[in-house]
Design brief:
Elements (H helix, E strand, L loop, with lengths): L3 H5 L7 E5 L4 H12 L3 E6 L15 E4 L5 H8 L4 E4 L6 H6 L1 H21 L4 E7 L22 H19 L3 E7 L2 E2 L12 H10 L5 E3 L5 E2 L2 E2 H13 L7 E5 L5 E2 H11 L8 E3 L14 H7 L7 H18 L7
Parallel strand pairs: 1-2, 1-4, 2-3, 4-5, 5-6, 6-11, 7-10, 8-13
Antiparallel strand pairs: 9-12
Helix pairs in contact: 2-8, 3-5, 5-6, 7-9, 7-11
Length: 333
């Protein structure tokens, strides 16, 4: 378990912060860390992503609501020093089916968050950006100066969000930073959706004794990043003493793992070598390879990964195993 106090000391003690999407997967981990660090934490979440407010500490104020509700955002950002904007619709395949819905929530919603934050003199907004903005470029590792090449409506909404944060930082007092997440995974990630992220989907299937499903040949690779690394990057950005001016920063571990390798590692950890993958056609909008260059993030924030891939996968599978025994995984929709 990560010792946030050892890493971040009193950087957030007494500071009032808002976490959008704070009952969801990454948001809940972030809200819990901020609470542990002594911040006054407010969470807004409409629970559409399967989050459970019961996971949050009692000291965290939970408000059920949407980032499309401008009056509510104005109320919740009042008096806040920082906003960690995690709320979004997050599935590439679903965005292909529902592009308008993704546009409204991810682009208009992000504008609403920025407008409320600026109007209420919030110091800084941290944005959950996405490595999907790099698209299908064959160049690896991915460097922040590469032009966006969105290959799905989801990726386009995240790239648009980065542009909005950059514009607000250039034109208004509010400071901003976009953290480009690379395939974040860990405990509490929703495994019940048809669009579940690959590690959550593998965990759900394999713990039930079923073969994992791989779309494509499995040689596509990702920079799978344990959730504590994303939390750490957000905390470093929130505590940064100067202005970040809308900079885009990669958040990953800087290691590439193929989906076939992931399946083998998961089978090894679970002692189920008999569970061989089942292959299906590739999905629209998926990119082939993804690997982060972390030079700028390290230089700007002093970021270094806290948890490498294999230990993170072991922690994640252990959590899903325990949750399955108690029935809590099945209750998450």
């Amino acid at each position: 378990m990560t010792d946030w106090r050892r890493l971040h000391g009193d950087s957030f003690r007494g500071r009032r912060v808002l976490v959008t999407g704070g009952a969801g997967f990454i948001g809940s981990h972030l809200a819990m860390a901020l609470n542990e660090l002594g911040a006054t934490v407010i969470v807004i979440d409409d629970l559409s992503g399967g989050g459970d407010p019961a996971d949050l500490p009692a000291a965290v104020t939970f408000v059920r609501g949407s980032i499309l509700d401008t009056e509510l955002l104005a109320k919740l950002t009042a008096g806040c020093d920082l906003v960690f904007h995690q709320a979004a619709l997050g599935s590439v395949p679903l965005s292909v089916q529902q592009p308008r819905r993704f546009h409204e929530v991810n682009i208009t919603g992000t504008f609403n968050v920025l407008e409320a934050a600026n109007n209420n003199r919030v110091h800084r907004v941290m944005f959950a950006a996405s490595s999907s903005a790099y698209g299908d470029s064959e160049t690896v590792p991915k460097i922040e100066t590469m032009p966006p090449r969105a290959r799905s409506p989801y990726a386009a909404t995240k790239a648009a969000g980065e542009a909005l944060l950059s514009a607000f930082a250039a034109c208004y007092p509010v400071d901003t930073v976009s953290l480009r997440y690379f395939n974040i995974f860990g405990p509490r990630q929703n495994a019940n959706s048809a669009y579940a992220a690959v590690i959550a989907a593998f965990a759900s299937a394999m713990l039930a004794g079923k073969a994992p499903v791989i779309y494509g040949d499995g040689e596509q690779s990702r920079d799978f990043t344990y959730v504590d690394n994303a939390v750490h990057a957000n905390l470093l950005a929130g505590a940064y003493p100067g202005r970040l001016d809308g900079v885009v920063l990669n958040v990953a571990i800087g290691q590439r793992t193929s989906v076939n390798e992931l399946a083998r590692d998961a089978a090894d950890i679970l002692h189920r070598p008999d569970l061989k993958p089942v292959y299906q056609p590739p999905r629209a909008g998926d990119v082939r390879h993804s690997l982060a260059d972390l030079s700028l993030t390290q230089k700007t924030l002093g970021y270094k990964p806290l948890v490498e891939f294999r230990p993170g996968l072991e922690r994640t599978l252990a959590w899903y195993g325990a949750a399955r025994e108690t029935g809590s995984v099945e209750s998450r929709k």
